[in-house]
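ok here's Lon protease:
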Amino acid sequence: METNEFWENSTKLARMEDSLPKQIFLLPIKVRPVFPGIITPLIVPPGRFIQSIEESSKGAGFLGLILLKEDESDLPSEDNIFQIGVVARILKKINLPDGGMNILVNTIQRFKINSIHTKEPALIANVSYPEEELGTSKNNIKALMRTLLILTKELAQNNPLFTEDMKLTMMNVNEPAKMADFVCSILNLEKEEYQSVIEAIQINDRLEKVLLFLKKEIELVVLQKKIQEQINDKIDNQQRQFFLREQLKAIQQELGVGEDKTEIKYDKLLERLKAIPVAEEIIVEIEREIDKFKNSDPISSDYNVIRNYLDLVDALPWEKPAEKDVNLLHAKKILNRDHHKLEDVKERILEFLAVHKLNPKSKGSILCLVGPPGVGKTSIAKSVAEALGRKFYRFSVGGVRDEAEIKGHRRTYIGAMPGKLISALKITKERDTVILLDEIDKMSQGYQGDPQAALLEVLDPEQNSNFRDHYLDLPFDLSDVLFIATANTFEPIPRVLLDRMEVIQLSGYITEEKVQIFQKYLWKKIFEKNGLNPDSFSMKKETVSVLINSYSRESGLRGLEKTFDKLVRKIALKQVLKDKYSKEIREKDLVEYLGPPPFVDDRMTIPKVPGTALGLAWTNAGGSTLLIEAVLIPGKGGLTLTGQMGKMMEESANIALSFVKNYVNNDSLFEKKAIHLHVPDGATPKDGPSAGITMATALLSLVTDRVIAPGFGMTGELTLTGEVLAIGGLREKIVAAKRVGVKKIIFPKDNEKAFQEIPDYVKRGVTFYPVTRFEEVEELVFPKSKGKKR
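and the structure:
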C-alpha cells in the first residue's frame, strides 16, 4: 500500500468523525464484538433495547455496539459493559414474531464512552471518537503489515474453513488498521482478547496483538492437522489390514489351504450343539457370538472377550453323560478299603448308589457329611466318586464371601470369570462329576453378596437343571452332578439350605478304632511319606494305645497322624546320622521322642469331693467331658458362674439352682451362703442345655455333703420340675466318656432311639442308665442307692 493512499483514507475518516453524533443509543452484545468496516445482521431480543433501535431509526440511525463483560450477569447493563465499542448505522430492520428484531448494520468506527447520559428507558451515552495513530514509523508498520499478510495466507492454506471469498477479501485489504480488524474478526479468540484489539487505538499496537493471536491460531491449526493425520493414518492402516485379511481369506478359500482354525473350531461347536440338541436359546446366542467374533478386529478389546467366552462354551460338557454301571459290591469294597467302621455312613451311601442303579434318572438327595475334623469326610467323598466311576472335584467354600465365586461375574466386568461350578465342569469335562463342597458351614455373607443363598439354586434338584451362571448366561443342566457337602456342625448352615441336603453324621473314633486304623492305614502311609521301611521299628498295641490316649485324644485322626509323623521323623534323623535306637518303641521311648504327654490320666474326670460331678459335652471337634465344681461361699443365696459359659449354659445353672433349692427345702442354708459354680478349662467356650442334670447333681452333692459314686458320667437337660429332656450328640459323648475311662453313663430316656442306632462296639464296656426324672439320677449316683441298670 502506498503512503499517499493511507493518509488519504485517514483524512477521510477524520472528516467522517464530524458527522457522527456525540450522544448515541447503546446496544450491548454478547460473546464477541463486531469490528469496524463490516456489514452484519444482529438479532435483538424483546426488551428495552428494541425502543433504542426505534428511537435511533427516527434520526440518523446510529447505534453504539458495546460488548458485555459477563453474558449472564445480574448487574445493570451500564455496569456490565466495556468502555470502548464500535458505532454502527442501521441499514435495515425486520420485526420478529416474538417481539424481537432482526437488524442489518454497517459498523463504522471505534468510540469511547465518556459518561452515561440516560439509563432508562433507553441506555444513552456521551461518547467521543479517538483518532487512530501509527504509534511507530511507517517502515515498522509496513513490516508488521507484510508479516500479517504472510501469516494470514499460511492460516488460510492450513484451515479448510477459510472460503475463497475470505481469501479474496484478505488480498484486497490494503489499510493496516482495517486488515488487523478483519484478521482478528476471523480468529477464534476469547472475549477479552477480542476486546483488547478493539481497545488498541494505536495501529502498531493493534497489529502486534493480532500477530500474536494469529501465531497461536496457526500453531493450534498445525497441531490439529497433525492429530487428524495420525488418526487418518491409523484408520487407513486398520482398513488396509482388514482388506488384506479378507483378500487372504478369499485366496486361501480358493486354494483350500490355510483356513482359520479358530473359526473352524467355533463352526464345529455350533454343529455339535445343534446335534445334541440343546435349547434353542443356546443355539441363537452362540450363533450371535460367533458372528460377532468373525466380524471383530483382532486388535479390538472385544475380540479376546468373545474368544474366551466361546472357548468356555466349547469346553463345557453339554452332552448327556454316558450311563455307568454301578457295581455295589465293588463300591462296598472301596468303602471298606478306605474307611474303617463308619458302618452307618457306608450303609447310607450304598443305599444312595442302589437307588441310582435302579433309577439312573433319579436326582436323589444332596449328601451333607457332618462331623468333627479328621474323621474322613473328604476321603469318603473321594471313595464315592471312585465307586461310581466318576471324576472328582473339590471346591472349598470355607471363608467364601463373594456370590460370584458360585455364580460367576457378568461379562461386562474387566477380568470376569465363570463361577467355580462351571469351572469345575470345564476342567473335568463330564457332566456327572462328583463335586465336593468342603466346609460349607464356614461360608459367610459379605458386601459382594450372599454365597449361601446362591447355593440354593445349585443344590435344589428342582432348579439346578436350568442353572444360570452370570458369566455363561445360558441355562446349564447341573442335575447330573452329584454334590456332596461337608461340615463340622450344621448350626451355621441356613435352614433353607440345610433342607435341600440329607445330613449324615460322622462321629469321632474311640481308642480301639484308632488303634485299628493306625495299624491298617496310617503306619504304612507315614513310613512312605518319610522314606522309611515299615520294618524300621515296631510298636506293640499297648504302646499305640498310650500314643493315642496320651498324645492325641481328639475325635479325628489328624492329631494322631501328626504325632506319629513327628516320631518317624526322629527315627529318620537317627538313621541318617547312623545313631543307635531301639527297634521296638515302648512307652518310655515316646517321652524321649515326643516329650511329656499333653494328656495325662484325667484327675479332673473323677468326682472326689462333695460338689463335683462329671458331665458329657458335645463340641465341633467331637465329644468331651466336663467336671463341674460347686462350693459354698459367704453371701446370701447368690450364684457366681465361671468357666466361660454361654448364655444357654448359664440358664441351665440357674434352673439347676432353683430346682435344688426347692428339692432340698432348706431355706436357712441358702440365706447364709452363696454358691460358686465353676467349669474348669476356662479358656474354652462352652454352651448348651445338656449339662442341666450334671449341675443339679453337683449342687445337690454340695448342699447334702455327699460324694457321688465313682465311674459316673451324665448328660441331660433339666427342667424346673425335675424332668430330664433329650439332648444331641449322644454317640460323640459316649466316645468321649470311653476315652477317659467312664464306665457308667446316665442319659435321657427320650434318647432311646438314638441310643439304639449306636453300634454295639461303641457301647461295649459301658453301663447305661436311661432316666426321665432327676430323682432317678439321685438314686443312681449317691451311695446306698440302687438304680436300674442296663
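+1. The domain at 511-594 is CATH 1.10.8.60 (Helicase, Ruva Protein; domain 3).
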